[in-house]
Amino acid sequence: MLTSRARAAKIGWSLAILLVSASAGILVDWQMSGVSRYSRDWLMRLRGPLPVPEDIAIVAIDEASIARFGRFPWSRQVIARTIDALAAAHPKVIAVDVLFADPTTQEDDDNLAHSIGRAGNVVVAAQLSDSPVHGGPSRWLAPLPVIEHAAKAVGHVNVQTELEGVARQIAERLADDSGRSYRALAMEAVRVADGTSEEGVTDAPHALLLGSRTIPLDTTAPSTVIEPTESTRVLRGGRMSIDYIGPAGSFNPVTYSLADVVAGRVPPEKFRGKFVLIGATAASLGDRITSPFVRYTDARADQHGALMPGVEVLANSINVILSGRYYSVTSDMTAFLLAALVAALTLMLLEAAQGGHELLKQLGVLIGMAGLIVAVGYLAFLKLLVFPPIVPCLVAFMCAGVLGLLQRSMTASARLDQNIAELALSGDLLAPAGPGIPGPYHWAEGGPVSLSRGWLPKGLEWKARMLSELNGRLLDRAKFVNFALRSIEDGLVIADPDGRITFANRSAGAILGATARGLVGQSLAQRLNGSVNAEVLARLVAERGHIEHEITIRGSRMRQYTLRLATVSADDSGDGPVLGIVGSLSDVTRQHELQQTKNDVISLVSHEMRTPLTAIQGMTELLAAYDVEPSRRREMNLAINDEVKRLARMITEYLDITRLESGATQMRMAAVRVESILERILILIEPIAAQRQIQLVRQIPADLPAVLADPDLFSRAVENLVTNAVKYSPNGTTVTVSARAEEDCLWIDVADQGYGIPETDLSRIFEKFYRVPRVQDAGVPGTGLGLSLVREIAELHHGSVAVRSEVGKGSTFTLRIPRSEA
After folding, report:
1. pLDDT per residue over 90-100, tens digit each?
2. Which one is the CATH code of 488-587: 1.10.540.10, 3.30.1330.120, 3.30.450.20, 3.30.720.200?
3. Total-model pTM
4. How far apart are CA 148 and CA 125, in angstroms?
């Protein structure tokens, strides 16, 4: 986010770039005006040819005419006959682009003058010739007086060419050093055709009013003093731009050979009511001029490099006046404003092109802007008949692009220097400094002191070295912090203020049943479902408090954890914005188990052991105090022996369970043939079952796969299940032992036809010392540790034990042992 100072500096830089870019565009246009002229020629060629006007016809002194009448100049009788033939067709005007400055025979000159006079609408040509001596007087190559007197008007045929030799304009009027002046032949031809008198022609400030026609003029050329007397006359340098309809030969459809006209082979309708121009087109006569189309390539890939005959230049000039296609030139102020607008748009688009794929977007902006300038300029030229300031706009665009990118680069570089300084001076956020950067860049107290000073940013080499050093230190500190967090035994979770997990160590992943990386992006409330919800986390963030309580997480085993949650603030006081939530999960399962063991020992001592010890104490005291009958003494000794055995068995089973729970029992895994172990257990228990007429039914396939297990513990678990089934079944019932193998585990079912277990007792059936309170089992000896031992053995093998029971029908205990490659 930019500060107000930075924003003001940015605006100032932008305005400076606009001013410099627009000024550079105008200066280039002034100093390299040929580039602008070339751009106008290019626009004209890009536009392509225009339709050939139907009101203009050319009578050409071509190669066929030279072949017919001989080498030019001919006898003036030929031109006279041509004018007579044309006058019979009643054209609007006949413009003769041929000089008659030198006398021939009196008869020929008079005949030509008579023909011109009879036609009544002939305009003849004059040409202003410079002196061959530098600085000498200029003079007119004017028609003979008799011919000038007979003609309706005289016009000059001079065409103004630029430094590169291209003819783009004709002068409105030219004068020699004596003050004699003539208007352009094209303008005089139009005036005569329109029937406008000399009094109907008016010189306006930037135009020539030719009767009802207005001819805009370019008056940037200097004026000329033609009569340096007391009544000084000044001839302004007004010029009319020529809009060429195409390259040389564009008027061929309306061009007719003079020989054909004299011979009567051209119908009079071709000239009636038209502007008829007589001039040379033969290449040998040399009256040729370079036009903007000299480099034009048409749609058929034909290159038109030929020079244009002077009579076609005259035809193009007349067509401009008749069609009113006058191109205007933008003023310097307009060009400056347009260049500034282009520069501003360039800066705006470059600013908008920041972000992803910035280089491609900036390249697209630059290409698009260049194309837009050319396209808009072409449309203005085509539709508005304006010569657009393409050169100033392109120069301003290039300057703005370069300066804008340079300014952004310098600003980003200075901002990077500032960030480097802040990072370098951040103290304990970085690892301790090493030997530092060699050369003029030195360090003090673990931080660099050669940072950016002044308004010029440091160089790229300095930045690269500095960032390399700081990056190494930052990575070292980040690695240390990361390793430290991941090495914590407690589960550690960090979340954003919305409760989305951003970091978790391996312990947290193991506790929450996922990988550490898999937890990232998940909802903390969902992962702690049932312990903490989203509302609690929101309240924690709002109050900037902390939470601590114990939770239970169920997995392969149910474990207890202490959950601690606290918010992380942006400052040490805790009053800043909340950056996130940090939580820890401490495993207190062992403490719970120790407490449970303590409770079990107390229960064992106070309940299970106290009664038999009290009975043993009473019987021993009785035997010691009294003389008991031998038979009675023997019964009491047997009872004492049974109670001692029961206590020993109880203590042994309890210690076995305790060792299994604590992990003190060393597992001796081996490949176990399940059917052999089951058969051996059933053989041992069959005599006990036979005493109560209980039948043991076997449903054990002979092809059971071997499993990887501790043989002793596995046998003990199965033996406890079968013994319990026999012990708690009524006489004369059946106990069924079955086994089946699946793809990933082995199942052993022990089903009896006993009394069944009530549903309220099913959840506690595997607890230590728990026995189902039932009248039928009043005389059955037991400690309540057998099923608890089975559960521990199953879990040590990563398996489980489950029970299904229905009161009055019996129970089925299922032992599941995962299969392993044995």
Report:
1. 999 999 999 99
2. 3.30.450.20
3. 0.59
4. 9
